[in-house]
Amino acid sequence: MTRVLVPDHIDAAAVPALGARVHGLRGETMGTTWWVLWADRDATRQAAVRAAIEAELDLVVAQMSTWLPSSDLSRFNRAAPGSRHTLPEAFADVLQAALWLAEASAGAFNPAAGALVNRWGFGPAPRHTDPGFTPPDETELCAALRTQDWRRLAFDAATREATQPGGLLLDLSAIAKGHAVDRVARALAGLGIAHALVEVGGELRGQGLRPDGMPWWVELECPPVAPGHSPPPPTRVALHGLSVATSGDYRRAYRHQGRHLPHSIDPRSGRPVAHGLASVSVLHTEALWADAWSTALTVAGRDAGLALAEAHGIAALFVQREADGGLTETLTGAMARLAG
Ligand code: ADP
Ligand code: MG
User: Which residue ranges traverse the bilayer (predicted)?
Assistant: First the structure.
């Protein structure tokens, strides 16, 4: 049986214009890929749509990339101890959301964990794939842990000012892709495109309907199952004014001395998460929040993550890898309501 998740309200009156067809574009950004589908009668505006999409993606990279040395974020990370900086608008908005979630999740989500992310080989350098790379020892872990107190940023949302306390490395990679998806969806709306499906690096947002009057359906990615176990039933989501993000422990990870090390780091222990959560999917109207919450809940682990998601009314699906290799699914109340 397929599980089907649909939003409370489908606005069937707002169907695409008669004669509209689905158009598509794809490209690369943020070390990953993007694609967009939209319903349109006008088949001549591919170039204008691509330009609008790329302008939004380029803005996010220029402000928030950890990989681009010239980004505003990279320059903040290199800035002198004690210096105060006025951040550009999008960067400040994303940082404000990230700091809110850092407080709400008691540090499970931490935008100031860049030094830890780097030292585990998931930042710009060194990469865990580099020859001679070794994970951090205790001394290095302690040093990285000391740099990640987000409160020392003394961020003021009104003036968009933040302090570089010295050695604090911001990393917005768990939230910026979601924000990019939201920006692209809004840019499309600005072009009069109300019916679209936007994807950046696995984060998705759907608006309106397809030309056939159906919502944009997507299937949630299922984590790999151990031999001898059957996968959980597929879950299909109607992305009608909804976004979805899935964090998994199996996609970006490496093995070291028999340990599985995924790219979600628990900033409280300083180590990659290891509590057997195979994936967490979050549905939210905003892709920014779906993206950030999926990482926060992954780091929190199933039990603490469930409690946190319930406390905030978050629609989440947890897939836990049990000791025998089987997968067990748990839905929050908000997610169960979408499942009818
Ligand atoms: P996923 O799809 O698995 O959620 P994301 O790309 O959204 O992956 O987020 C993972 C990235 O977030 C990591 O590569 C790292 O840069 C950063 N990150 C890792 N741990 C945390 C954390 N606890 N809080 C915030 N960001 C983190
Ligand atoms: Mg994320």
Answer: none
How would you label 38-64 residue by residue, b for 16+ Cβ within 10 Å and e otherwise?
bbbebeebeeebeebbbebbebbbbbb
Global pTM value: 0.97
Sheet holding 242-248, edge to edge: 21-29, 32-40, 196-200, 203-207, 242-248, 277-284, 315-321, 327-331
CB-CB contact of 340 with 315 (8 Å):
no
CA 21 to ligand 2 centroid distance, Å: 31
Please give the structure tokens belonging to residue 319: 């897939």
Distance CA 250, CA 326 (A): 15
Q: What angle do CA 44, 50, 51 make, to 5 degrees?
A: 105
Nearest residue (CA) to ligand 1, atom 2: 247
> Does the CB atom of residue 288 touch ligand 1 within 6 A?
no
**Closest ligand, as measured to the CA of 263:** 1
Domains, the chain, ordered by start: 3-29+206-338 (3.10.520.10)
Q: How far apart are CA 250 and CA 224, in angstroms?
A: 8
What tens digit of pLDDT does each residue of 110-151 get?
A: 999 999 999 999 998 889 999 989 999 999 999 999 999 999
| Average pLDDT of the chain to the nearest whole number | 95
